[in-house]
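Internal ticket #5521
Category: modeling
Description: The requester needs a full-assembly model to guide mutagenesis choices. All entity lines are attached below as received. Residue total reported by intake: 367.
Assigned to: D.W.
Attached entities:
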Amino acid sequence: MHELSLCGAIYEIVDRAAAGRPVTVIHLQVGRLRQVVPDTLRFCWTLVSDQTDLAGTELEVDSVPVALRCLDCDVDSTVADELLLLCDRCGGNHVSVTSGEEFMLTSLELAEG
Amino acid sequence: MGRFHRHIDGTGHQHNLEHDHDHATVHGDLSGYRTGPERVLVLERIFSENDRCAAANRATLDAAGVVAVNVMSSPGAGKTEILRHTLMNLSGPARIGIVEGDIETSIDADRLSGFGAQIALLNTGSGFGGECHLDAPMVASALPRLDLTSLDLLFIENVGNLVCPAEFDVGAHHRVMVYAITEGEEKPLKYPVMFRAVELVLVNKLDLLPHLDFDLPLFRRNLASVNPSATVLEVSARTASGLGPWFDWLAGLR
């Protein structure tokens, strides 16, 4: 996959938001429907941040489960198997995804002192 | 809103803009006074830069009256051949441009030349072994190379890949997929993100059906389970059969 170029995008956002302050941990929200592998992302981050101001910072990934709203029976479902997006109640596939597609940098932790 | 801090002498107060004593030496230096790591709220989508660029691409296309279609598929499913037939048949009534994306070579761009269409080639092969998809900034770099005011329809032929292209809005108005029956029936279940991302699937290489055990109704069911609203057209680019409805669909976009 392209976790390496995603880390490039993450770097730009962190660099801007940190505004010169020392960062320790970068918190990300990754929905389970995104085709991103957290371990690969963390590995690529070490490559991208190496020998920069962000070297040694950690990516902390919060994995968001997939939730659906059924457009037929109006019921909210959570999804165990991300391959099958079906309503819990009626088993129908006329659904809209209400969570699980996030790919966001939520916050940064700054070094103490 | 106040912000609590303590002074060197241990007294503390809510910090307001107006206060009546001197903070000169302590103010701004909170070292040793923090109770935990300071968090900076960012809440920015990682794709936000790409998506800003995609919206700008769409605005540029709208201003020139051009409808753009992002064409995706596995490598070898038949995107270029279908586009070749499209150019052959529609280059009269419609003024067509192509943004051609490939990791290496101009082979596809060359195959599409000779029909009078403007073609802008994007080779993604620089850097870490080549980008496996097109993104909005890449397409933005190609648009100025086309005379958009003289186009009605723009095809963006993406890199052959069923995974990454689905993640990137390139600024097109529509997204379609070419799928070859040689790929089997199960791919919609294995690559749900891609199949959910498109409005139309061109099921290609139908001329090979007698030589395969391909179960077309099963494929349609699998596709419907991940994308119930996708339009499905059965075609053979090689024999040029079934392409009429595809041309009609394109004509309906404008």
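Resolution: model delivered.
Comment from assignee: Residues 1-27 of chain B have pLDDT under 50 and may be disordered.
Ticket closed.
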